């Protein structure tokens, strides 16, 4: 009888573990994707500053700007350039 109870408890623990893993994998994937896009946003900011320095377009390299570019992509670059232009004029 104790072996049957032990197997039942082990099966319940495994099912609960699988359920918890299934619940938390989606948010973890979203967090990793956002982190990867932010890192790519940093590289995009560095490239924009390097090539934009020839024509006078520069954007500050910081976490918020990288996050905006990481989340929005090319429209995020346009948004940051527009905000920079509005702040200057």
Give a structural overview:
With 89 residues, the chain is mainly α. The chain is built from 3 helices and no strands. Helix 1 packs across helix 2. The protein starts with a helix and ends with a helix. The model has no long low-confidence stretch (mean pLDDT 86).
Entry keywords:
89 residues; mainly alpha
Strand content: under 5%
Number of helices: 3
Distance between the termini: 81 Å
The secondary structure category is mainly alpha
Query: If you compute it from the alpha carbons, what radius of gyration comes out, rounded to the nearest whole angstrom?
Result: 24 Å
* Topology order in helix (H) and strand (E) letters: HHH
Shape summary: rod-shaped
User: How would a crystallographer describe the biggest sheet?
Assistant: none
Averaged pLDDT, please?
86
Count the E strands.
0
The helical percent reads: over 70%
Which regions contain 5 or more consecutive residues with pLDDT less than 50? none
Q: Estimate nothing, just give the exact number of structural domains.
A: 1
């Amino acid at each position: 009888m104790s072996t049957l109870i032990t197997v039942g408890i082990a099966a319940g623990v495994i099912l609960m573990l699988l359920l918890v893993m299934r619940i938390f994998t989606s948010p973890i994937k979203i967090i990793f994707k956002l982190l990867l896009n932010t890192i790519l946003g940093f590289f995009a900011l560095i490239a924009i500053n390097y090539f934009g320095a020839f024509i006078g377009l520069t954007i500050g390299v910081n976490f918020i700007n990288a996050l905006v570019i990481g989340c929005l992509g090319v429209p995020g670059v346009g948004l940051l350039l527009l905000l920079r232009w509005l702040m200057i004029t």
